[in-house]
Amino acid sequence: MNETRNPVMIEHPFAEHEARDDLTGLPGLDAVRARLCQWSQAGGEANVHGLLLGLQRFETINMAFGEAAGDGALVAVAARLTQFAGDELDGPWLAARGTGGAFIVVASQPCSRERWQLFAEQLADLVARPIARGTETLRLSPRIALLRALPGEDPESVIDRLSQTLATARRQQGRRVVWADGETTRPGRTAAQLEADLLKALDRDEIEVVYQPQFALSPHGRAEERLSGAEALARWNHPELGRIGAGALFAIAERADHVVPLSRHVAALALAEAARWPGGLRLSLNVTPAELASWSFAADMAEALRLSGLPADRLTLEVTEQALLADIALAARSLAEIAREGVRIALDDFGAGFCNFRYLKTLPLHYLKLDRSMVDNITEDERDLAVLRAITAMAGALGLEVIAEGIETEAQATAAAREGCGYLQGFLRAQPMAADEFLARVSGG
Question: What angle do CA 185, 166, 164 make, to 5 degrees?
């Protein structure tokens, strides 16, 4: 995009005719329009937030490293963006791809202006992290436009304001995030202040664990009446910024070298809560790279289980590809040790990264948990459905169960069940909820 173009002449960085991007698997602008209309008709436009991310001088990546490298960078950005949004946003949201290096996120949930700014700043940091490609390292420079939808604002206006604002952001040196009204709002706390806040947050009881229910699927795609369990998700109820999701929370903890204490705190809260659940409901806990890098990880987790009173066979540990990259041999040993106690292991976000099949051979896995990108379009695209069918067939051959994450429609649930997924998790059945709310749902159901 020409950075010297007059803002009123700027073109939208989206292809109007594009329904879904073949490279990243993300939907296009029509899906954004449809989702914004849906929220407006439901009376939720007052809580709609938009974000448009563009990559500065992306064409130089193609020139310097080749188009294949540029394509790989876009796939990496899409994966980082969708994973971060999934970690951070509790309400409905949609990520989409524009032309070139443009991506959009729209969300419908109560959120302060400062919180949406912090979301954008953390996303920019994540996208700017180096991308390794063979012997080369790619570095991207994101610019982000933000807005809060106006009462009664139509989708075209939302998209137009984001596009115009991104053009402004591209021209302004040193400003990564710009609001559609022309202001730059600071998150209210500097990075150093946020790190200091986090060190006190554990003692102040500001760290909360919410639970997103998981459901067993019947052969016809209907969730059984009985919940199968829930995934524990960390949230930080910051006194000034409001609720901060897991992605930003652990990014701040990483900078403060506080990941392991935070992870142990979250695990202790979740394990104690799950011990109160009736029946055989399972708890799923995410494992961070810092935890897996510790030689005492298995022993520490076993001790936490003992203190909580939760039987080991009711715990599932979810590990991502990122958590395995540092030392796959150590990770395999630690996970095998804790698996011998009866704990189950799930490979999380399967399909979002490189899908290294070595992990399927090396790790003591019980589940594959599909990234939402693997189920997004299975009801509209035969190719996407064929990929899902191949994954479930492979999982069956390996004796692994499949969990479909990000299920938002009955049609997706039906297709996932028909193709062999045993469990689902997503907004179709339930959004993340507080511990007491989840316990009440279990007891009442």
Answer: 105
Look up the CATH number of the domain holding residue 318. 3.20.20.450
- Give me the helix-helix angle, 382-397 and 410-418, nearest 10°: 40
Show which of 118, 147, 179 is a domain's final residue: 179
- Tell me how many domains the chain contains: 2
* Residue-level pLDDT at 152: 82
What's the length of the chain? 445
The neighbouring-strand residues paired with 236 are 207, 244
Neighbours of 412 (CB within 10 A): 23
What digits encode the pLDDT tens for the residues 84-129?
898 888 888 999 998 778 999 999 988 888 889 889 998 998 898 8
* 111 shares a domain with 199: no
Residues 6+ apart with CB under 8 A from 253: 198, 259, 262
d(C-alpha 182, C-alpha 71), whole Å: 32
Tell whether the torsion through CA atoms of 85, 89, 95 and 101 is positive or negative: negative
**Rounded-to-integer distance, Cα 286 and Cα 303, Å:** 17
Domain that holds residue 133: 7-179
Q: Is the pLDDT of residue 252 over 60?
A: yes
Q: What is the distance of C-alpha 14 from the center of its chain?
A: 23
Residue 170, both tokens: 């591209």
Task: Please give the structure tokens belonging to residue 115.
Answer: 């919180």
Q: Residue range 353-370: average pLDDT?
A: 83
Q: What is the pLDDT of residues 183-222, one digit of tens each?
A: 554 455 667 788 889 989 988 999 999 999 999 987 655 5
Q: By C-alpha distance, which of 363, 438, 432, 374 is closest to 402? A: 374
